[in-house]
Design goal:
Blueprint (H helix, E strand, L loop, with lengths): L8 H9 L10 H14 L3 H14 L1 H9 L3
Helix pairs in contact: 3-4
C-alpha cells in the first residue's frame, strides 16, 4: 500500500524553518550498526536526536549519564 501526502507549500516552508541542519562526525562502525537497527525499528536519526535533545534539556539524570560517558 502506498500513501501519498499532499502538503501545502506554506506548511512545508514553516516546517523547514523550524528545523536546523547540522552535521556531526560519528564512529563509522557504530553508525553502520545504528542504521541497521533503525531500519529494523523504523526509527530515524532525526527522531533519536530530537528525543535525546528533549531528554538532555529536561532530565538531569539523562544529562548526567551523557556527561559520564564522555571520553
Amino acid at each position: 500500500k502506498t500513501t501519498i501526502y499532499i502538503i501545502n507549500k506554506k506548511v512545508m516552508n514553516k516546517l523547514k524553518k523550524e528545523r536546523v541542519l547540522t552535521s556531526v562526525k560519528v564512529d563509522k562502525v557504530k553508525f553502520e550498526d545504528f542504521k541497521i537497527e533503525c531500519y529494523r525499528q523504523k526509527y530515524t536519526m532525526t527522531e533519536l536526536v530530537d528525543a535525546a535533545l528533549e531528554m538532555y534539556l529536561t532530565d538531569d539524570r539523562f544529562k548526567n549519564l551523557v556527561h559520564s560517558l564522555k571520553k
